[in-house]
Description:
Blueprint: E1 6-10, H1 15-31, E2 36-41, H2 47-53, E3 57-60, H3 79-95, E4 99-102, H4 108-117, E5 122-126, H5 133-138, E6 145-147, H6 150-155, E7 163-164, H7 171-174, H8 178-189, E8 197-201, H9 208-216, H10 218-223, E9 227-231, E10 249-252, H11 258-264, E11 267-270, H12 274-283, E12 287-289, H13 298-308, E13 312-314, H14 322-333, H15 336-349, H16 354-366
Helix pairs in contact: 1-16, 3-4, 8-11, 12-15
Organism: Actinoplanes flavus
Pathway: Cell wall biogenesis; peptidoglycan biosynthesis
InterPro entries: GlcNAc_MurG (IPR006009), Glyco_trans_28_C (IPR007235), GlycoTrans_28_N (IPR004276)
Amino acid sequence: MGPLRSVVLAGGGTGGHIYPLLAFADALRRHFPQIRITTLGSPKGMENQLIPAAGYDLRSIPAFQLPRSLNLDLLRTPDRMYRSAHAAGEIIDEVQAEVVVGFGGYVSVPAYLAAWRRELPIVIHEVNVPPGVANRMGMKFTKRVAVGFPHQLEQAEALRNARLVGVPLRTGITHMDRPALRPQALYHFGLRPDLPVLFVSGGSSGARTINLAVAAAAKRLAHAGIQVLHVQGGRNDPFEVPNDLPVPYVVVPYLSDMQLGYAAADLMLCRGGAITVAETTALGMPAIYVPYPFSNQEQRRNALPVVEAGGGLLVDNSELTPDWIERNIVPLARDRQRLAQMGTAAAGYGRRDGDEQLLRFVLEAVS
Length: 367
Ligand SMILES: CC(=O)N[C@H]1[C@@H](OP(=O)(O)OP(=O)(O)OC[C@H]2O[C@@H](n3ccc(=O)[nH]c3=O)[C@H](O)[C@@H]2O)O[C@H](CO)[C@@H](O)[C@@H]1O
């Protein structure tokens, strides 16, 4: 077949849906420099900051919230769904899209619906178990479903026949040479080269429990000679850290250059969002995962295979206290050998070619 000329990518809400979309857009552009890439988002999601900043065309379509269960009778779906699908269809027609690729988030549903009505190929990329509500609806319109992780094939009936492609990750992360970037990253954040760095991130929105627990442990970490680089997260309140600590504790609201954080880090403390897990493992980053407790155990499922492979530790949200941090993180952060072993195990589970594998799958869909 000839080169792809025009695609519509749909996805939005939080970073977990948007970063894979952007990484895939970059792969399309690398392979087909003349391609027209149009992204569909909702008016309020993080896509409104992240997608224009990455230089892609973002079209907003009217928002509507999906019910959280699937016994959705399409005939009784509210008018707003049809308005959104109509808007998505007009954009698909205008750009003469050859395929719609959806990454989840409720903005994907009107795109799937509009593409189905036009008999356009639809490809869904799903990273969670259970699959998100929007993508489960999309699966009524296409059998071309790609997943990020092996456990998804075993743990979700709806994903049993999906194609395992991995997660499209930003090349700034997948092509990164961590040791080479480390001095620059430490300098950038004002961190010392002679002491370990704990990198704390609660995902794209931030995590209140993690933020408060680590901030409350600031003195104990500092007196043990552990530096902290702490990302507050896009939607979280500021927290207090003592300002008379003997070693650096750096708080940043959000990192657009996430690779700098990974480069500075010896150990990560994070939630178990799917893209975060894909990134830590692609980089061979030892991590302590604190899954978000309120979303169908999806984050626990993401982190468990890495932890079972020896690539990190798992701690319940309710158990992450300053005492736990002192007892577990302090000795680990100072044990270079154990960190190296964990890093190697994490890397064994990680993969870096999700963007290329998804592209191959999409090309099959349009051929
Ligand atoms: C609470 C919740 O429901 N979270 C879900 C959400 O997580 P969330 O939106 O937090 O997504 P992930 O943890 O999967 O990914 C976060 C992304 O944001 C990036 N990042 C983060 C902080 C920062 O300062 N800069 C930055 O670039 C990370 O590098 C990563 O690429 O979507 C994921 C993927 O569907 C799901 O698995 C999570 O369960």
